[in-house]
Amino acid sequence: MFGTSTAAYQIEGAVAEDGRGPSIWDTFTAEPGRILDGSSGAEACDHYHRWHEDVALMARLGAQGYRFSIAWPRIQPTGSGEVNKPGLEFYDRLVDELLAHDIAPMATLYHWDLPQPLEDAGGWLSRDTAERFGEYAAIVGERLADRVAHWVPVNEPNVVSLIGYALGMHAPGTTLMFGALPAAHHLLLGHGLAVQALRAVGAKAIGTANNHAPMWPASDCEADRAAADHFDVVWNRIFADPMLLGRYPEAPADLHWGELMGTERLDDDLAVIAQPLDFYGVNYYNPMCVAAPADPTSEMPFDQREVTGYPRTDIGWPVVPDGLRELLVLLKDRYPSLPPVMITENGCAYNTGPDDHGIVDDQARIDYLDGHLRAVATAIDEGVDVRGYYCWSLLDNFEWSEGYTQRFGLVHVDYATQRRTPKRSFDWYAETIRSHR
User: Which residues pair with 291 in a beta bridge?
Assistant: First the structure.
């Protein structure tokens, strides 16, 4: 299955329309210095009003699936209680329009836009947020489970907890370092509660969308290899092991995971987190290079280094297609009961705009996608059961802390006019999809 992906806050706009409540990203973007260009997702791609046009683009692409996210603040403006009917009706119409064009909907329930009142009450550091998330999942599932083909409860819980709560580079912008581990646990618990809620209302296929990366030691020395193993636990295994093995990896320094995660109900929680999955979603962008800390007094037991020797995208990320093959084979070997895999995100930022003839000649993106699809094909040859590939992203959009400075889309968006211009990569991907039908 070939598809494409987006996220609500990055494309919808209309942040104060039809009863939508404020999210942590509305708050975060309003704080000076948080976003590179000082922008926000207040208008973004105006998808909330232009969704007909965007679904028509997907149909022209030949997309077999579309992964979108549902904005929790549109459904429950305060994160709990009464349902905001206009918000739910928006996604109801979107799903029907997708199905009318034979595009299978993949709905993500949480792509980072937590209702601000829940953050004010503790956010993902609080167990209550996970419980509210389960209730929200039941509301959305009851309305859409008869038509949504695939469900993703939480997108990239590692990015939320580490980049949002630990390092403060994303909303909510706290710098708790290892004090953010309770957020990781509650995101996983929310995932499990949502899976249970979706199953109860007849959801067909439920998975996840975890961001994973191969960890490359900066050298063969024991200290660098140990640091890479440590970061592998923090970035990959803390999130995959509970879902797929029903346990956390071995705790550092003989500490108990319950103490680190702020819960006395660890075993009960792990049973909830480890709900059987119909597919395992993988978001891949690049490997990470890890070294022992240069400063022996550092609070962090590892340093991140640049991956050298490869071309880079405009956002500065290394282009390593074989890293995707390496990752997929690693997951297969590490988790014998790994469900069928979906590549739920893979894409690149190149900021090529229209030329004098209105053509966006983004050959670098074509090369990137071609290389990564070939890597997926090789992984399949090596025994990994991959069922789908969703390109990130359909549209240029609000790229979180980078604002509008980076363009990941198959479709160029002129933010001043909202004009959509399919790029050469759009045509290439369309032909790729047609050739595999």
Answer: 303
pTM, two decimals, is 0.98
Look at residue 35 and give its three-state secondary structure: coil
Number of domains the chain contains: 1
- 132-190 confidence digits (pLDDT tens): 999 999 999 999 999 999 999 999 999 999 999 999 999 999 999 999 999 999 999 99
Catalytic residue check, 156: yes
Angstrom distances, CA of residue 236 to CA of 203, 211, 230, 304, 337: 27, 8, 10, 15, 17
Model confidence over 383-394: pLDDT tens digits?
999 999 999 999
Q: How confident is the model over 296-319, as a mean pLDDT?
A: 94
**Mean pLDDT value of segment 339-364:** 98
Q: Which of 12, 97, 326, 345 is catalytic?
A: 345
3-class DSSP assignment, residue 103? coil
190 class by beta-carbon count within 10 Å (0-12 exposed, 13-18 middle, 19+ buried): buried
Is the Cβ–Cβ distance between 75 and 90 less than 8 Å? Answer: no
Active-site choice (156, 250, 306, 399):
156
Contacts (Cβ under 8 Å, ≥6 apart) of 264: 258
Contacts within 8 Å (CB) and 24+ apart, 424-429: 424/359, 424/360, 424/361, 424/362, 424/363, 424/366, 425/362, 425/365, 425/366, 425/369, 426/61, 428/366, 428/369, 428/370, 429/2, 429/61, 429/369, 429/391
Tokens of residue 47, six digits: 């998808």
CA distances from residue 420 to 58, 62, 148, 198 in whole angstroms, order as listed: 12, 17, 26, 35
The candidate with the shortest Cα–Cα distance to 432, out of 344, 354, 368, 337, is: 368
pLDDT for 358 beyond 80: yes
Q: Which residue range forms the structural domain that includes residue 193? A: 2-436
Average pLDDT over residues 256-260: 90
Concatenating the DSSP letter of every residue in 289-355 gives EEE--SSTT-SSS-EEE---SS-B-TTS-B--HHHHHHHHHHHHHH-TTPPPEEEEE----------
| Token pair for 333 | 């070997």
Q: What CATH number has the domain bearing residue 305?
A: 3.20.20.80
Q: Smallest Cα–Cα separation from 20: which of 60, 72, 65? A: 72
Kindly report the number of other CB atoms within 10 A of residue 404's CB atom: 18
**pLDDT of residue 251 exceeding 80:** no
Residues in contact with 19: Cβ distance below 8 Å, sequence separation at least 6, in sequence order: 74, 77, 84, 85, 86, 87
Q: At 198, phi and psi to the nearest 5?
A: -65, -40
